[in-house]
């Protein structure tokens, strides 16, 4: 009978959750989905030295944020639990000892000192480091005597010395390893803790994992795992090694060159839809030239054979484009709600938001989402819609000639005849609005009417208006500005500037 497809990710809680974890989770989820299977989450926390407090919870939170849901896991349980290796410690020792009984593994009593010397000698001879099999042929009596004497030991796998181990990788074809190059790896450490290899294989087996889809960097571990499955006489899962995400210089993605923490992407204001979509483009093509899709669409259409192995580059510019597309697609109210923390961070709104503020924010978001790449950018580029008190820019020595000229022009524009008249006429028209609310069409019509009545070019009329409404030489589109800030704040800005500059 065909086994039910079960896939997993098995992150170690050793720090900030990595984009690579989300990437691998996405492909595991999609693979399980199209095969009518299940995806589970296991926490591999056997390495106490690298354990980071709180990191497990952040893995749950960030994967949850992205909608990468698991059917079983440490937080929700399941019939193959526990799903946290630290709660399964009692299991691994017995399995290691069973391999010893079957002659597939052996006790090794070599001291740290001997192993260090061995490594140094191998290094000096230009050989690859590896265990030399010193304890492989100890007799049962010798072993028992050492155990009885309380000597410290590890348990090692007895690797065959000849032959080959082959990974039949669905994406990469057969990868062949000479057995004599594979070390007699440690399965159980001196402190009784399992190594990654032992715990990983035992758990994948006991949890019914049928497909191990993990990053390319684990390829060197896979022959060891295949040998462990053989030694246990267990059916091995199918191994599929995904390409590594890369920096733009094609090196393995790294903190120094590219943000890798999922928390960073969340705090930066990428939408979960944007990040997921982008990860779904890494080494994968959806087909039909479709670049923008949802998680559900990705899952529905998934075909693992479309994974390409050329190292996908994690390009933030492309991510920005993808995220922008999703910001445009998103329900406006939802997007506004999601952007609130970012406006708050900029100090533009307080803890609670009035109805009026909310309506202004909605207008800003609707406008800004057209060209911003993140929620944070929407907020940080919105100052002009919030700051009612401002001054014209000072001319400073750092300015280049062009800037000096355009700034000087701003000062003359508000003082000359046309400028004064334009400001006055425009203010008059705005004052006549019966409500604070001005529609975009009305704002446009008012600005056009001012232009027509003054009878001068748009530069002559709009420059002084822009100066009193924003204090800037360029930027914000005036139609939208008036629409967003409304009658009262438009007038307040004009009046305050009239006073300040004696217009
Ligand atoms: N604990 C390993 C990790 O941190 C799991 C690797 C695997 O998928 O086997 O990614």
Q: Which series of helices and strands comes N to C?
A: EHEHHEHHEEEEHEHEHHHHHHHHHHHH
Spell out which ligands are present.
glutamic acid
Major sheet attributes: 3 strands, antiparallel
Principal-axes geometry comes out as elongated
> Could you give the count of β-strands?
9
User: Order of strands side by side in the largest beta sheet?
Assistant: 3-4-7
Count of helices?
Answer: 19
What does the average pLDDT come to?
95
Which characteristics define this entry?
mainly alpha; 19 helices; 503 residues; two-stranded parallel ribbon
Question: Could you outline the blueprint of secondary structure elements for this entry?
Answer:
Elements: E1 6-9, H1 19-34, E2 38-41, H2 55-65, H3 89-101, E3 105-108, H4 112-124, H5 140-148, E4 154-157, E5 164-169, E6 173-178, E7 186-188, H6 196-206, E8 211-215, H7 222-232, E9 238-242, H8 262-267, H9 272-279, H10 295-301, H11 316-329, H12 332-345, H13 355-368, H14 375-380, H15 401-415, H16 417-431, H17 440-454, H18 458-470, H19 478-501
Parallel strand pairs: 1-2, 8-9
Antiparallel strand pairs: 3-4, 4-7, 5-6
The structure holds glutamic acid.
